[in-house]
Design a protein that fits this description.
This protein is of the alpha/beta class. Helix content is 34%, strand content 23%. The protein contains eleven helices and 13 strands. It has helices spanning 13-17, 26-37, 54-60, 87-100, 119-127, 139-142, 157-162, 185-195, 213-218, 230-235, 247-254; strands at 7-11, 40-45, 64-67, 72-75, 78-82, 103-107, 112-114, 147-151, 166-170, 175-180, 203-207, 221-224, 238-239. It has an eight-stranded mixed β-sheet, with helices on both faces. A five-stranded antiparallel β-sheet has the order 7-6-8-10-9. Strand 9 (166-170) and strand 10 (175-180) form a beta hairpin. The longest helix is centred in the middle third of the chain and has 14 residues, at 87-100. The protein starts with 6 loop residues before the first strand and ends with a helix.
């Protein structure tokens, strides 16, 4: 495994590396290859699961990724870190979701199931261009679960108040990602850097949303997308154009990475 990179560049996916159709533009794929050729390691850092990355990994050639908001990390097919939520914790969040009229999606690193179907589920998966998972209420009892998603129109505050030992990240109009308190994209980056012996090299991050805030606070150079939320922009060293307006290419060029 190559260790002599000049630095690492971490990319969020939705609203960042991907376009409005959740695809990789040719110009972005070309830029990522150029970035790698220039001696930098490109890494995906996303709330998505590994089974939702195939259409990204192919065009970009990326083989290192932080998924499920830092709960599952791989590089060159080697697992660097995996977190796990225990059954009792998952059941407690499910009970709260039932009380609030929400539902839950349950993730292993590469399979997703629903606890139960609610109409909002169809809206959610259509919005992120992912096939709607099947319902399996006992899925978490049979598998190691790094992350669950509360599918809800509401924000994370009422859940965060009930469960201070978990992290709740509002990652889209319909989704609240749920991981252990010591899990975030920032912690994911730390595990990745330690695992690849890159802790002494500069770290660049690109992002647009609430779950990107921890890694923005950690990075040496934080680049916010023009379509990003205010909190991310306020933490950024540089605000590039939108993900649909050459934001990745412009951001990489600004720091002379390509």
């Amino acid at each position: 495994m190559q260790k002599n990179y000049l630095g690492t560049v971490f990319f969020d996916l939705d609203g960042t590396l991907m376009n409005a159709q959740s695809q990789i533009d040719d110009s972005v794929a070309k830029a990522v290859h150029e970035l790698h050729d220039n001696g930098y390691l490109p890494v995906i850092s996303t709330g998505r699961a590994t089974n939702e990355l195939e259409h990204v990994l192919g065009p970009t050639g990326i083989d290192s990724y932080i998924t499920l908001n830092g709960a599952y990390i791989k590089s060159e097919n080697q697992v660097i870190y995996e977190s796990e939520l225990d059954d009792q914790t998952i059941e407690s969040v499910i009970d709260a979701a039932n009380n609030f009229g929400d539902t839950i999606a349950i993730h292993t690193p590469d399979v997703t199931k629903l606890y139960k179907y609610e109409p909002i589920v169809t809206e959610f998966y259509k919005s992120v261009h992912i096939e709607q998972p099947e319902v399996d209420p006992d899925f978490y009892k049979k598998n190691s679960i790094p992350m669950i998603i509360v599918v809800s129109h509401e924000g994370p505050e009422r859940y965060q108040k009930l469960f201070p030992d978990l992290n709740f990240f509002k990652t889209g109009k319909y989704s609240i990602d749920v991981v252990k308190k010591d899990v975030s994209k920032m912690h994911g980056i730390k595990h990745m850097l330690a695992g690849l012996d890159l802790e002494d090299k500069p770290v660049y991050v690109f992002g647009d949303g609430a779950n990107d805030v921890p890694m923005f606070k950690f990075a040496d150079h934080a680049i916010a997308m023009g379509n990003g939320i205010d909190e991310v922009k306020e933490l950024a060293e540089f605000i590039t154009t939108a993900n649909t307006d050459n934001g990745i290419v412009n951001g990489l060029k600004h720091f002379d990475l390509i």
